Amino acid sequence: MATGGNAIRGTRVGAGPMGEQDHGYHADRVAVSYWDATGNEIVRHFAAGIPDDEIPEVIDSPHTGLPAGRDRSNPPAVSKTEPYKTHLAYVKERRTDEEATQLLDDALRQLRERRGQS
């Protein structure tokens, strides 16, 4: 009994010889390095003909989530994020305690009138 193999198993039709480098065109590009506050280097590639003002100065580091800048000796500082506020916190910013008490009293009075409890 002959053991035969399938020579094209696992390859796409028309893929050509393995390792062939002539497929596709590789555009010229420039590598730009960014550093975050922990010293991690992130390299991003941009088209070689792109103007410098279109290359971002700051990106988010995919490893740490920190901002990363192009100046290795002076990475950008973490911007202070405002904590999540509840609806009640926003209301308390707009109303004084006296206003809140008056609104509550008015709402309770209206509720009691609707229910017939004066």
3D structure, described in words:
- Helix content is 23%, strand content 18%.
- With 118 residues, the protein is α+β, with helices and mostly antiparallel strands.
- Among the domains are: 29-69, no CATH class; 82-118.
- It has a four-stranded antiparallel sheet with strand order 2-1-4-3, with no helix packed on it.
- The N and C termini lie far apart (101 Å).
A few lines on this structure:
The protein has 118 residues and is α+β, with helices and mostly antiparallel strands. Helices cover 23% and strands 18% of the residues. It has two helices and four strands; from the N terminus they run E-E-E-E-H-H.
List the helices and strands and how they pair.
Blueprint: E1 29-36, E2 41-47, E3 58-60, E4 67-69, H1 87-94, H2 97-115
Antiparallel strand pairs: 1-2, 1-4, 3-4
Shape: elongated
Strand content: 15-25%
Number of helical segments? 2
The overall pLDDT average reads 83
**What's the arrangement of strands in the largest beta sheet?**
2-1-4-3
Q: What structural class results from the helix and strand content?
A: alpha+beta
What's the end-to-end separation, in Å?
A: 101 Å
Largest sheet: 4 strands, antiparallel
Helix content: 10-25%
Poorly predicted regions: none
Gyration radius from CA atoms, angstroms: 32 Å
Number of distinct beta strands:
4
Query: What is the succession of H and E elements?
Result: EEEEHH
